[in-house]
Amino acid sequence: MTETPELDPVIHAQARLRVVSALSALRDDDKVTFPWLQESLGMTAGNLSVHLRKLEDAGYVEVTKTHQGRTPATLLRLTRRGRLAFEEYTAALRALLDPGASS
């Protein structure tokens, strides 16, 4: 019997999975604004902030505070570590869903 793959608990929460999935669709160095991600995912600012903090603490998301003109802006991107974690997560999920596929 093969070992059951573990799903990364940081990514596995539904909201964080949605965040990582959305950011993984960008090119490596592309960044999006907090309001864009919030609107795209239909999340409240508070809820998104909490999940971004958890992803940032894990090293999966980079949060950059800057200004666009005089307006404060928060830019977000998936780090290399975050991309790798998401790739491993999706591979583990595929293995759970179709255990015979990798045999």
Automatic annotation (TrEMBL):
Pfam families: HTH_34. SUPFAM superfamilies: Winged helix' DNA-binding domain. Residues 21-96 form the Winged helix DNA-binding domain. PANTHER family: BSL7504 PROTEIN. This is MarR family transcriptional regulator. It comes from Paractinoplanes tereljensis.
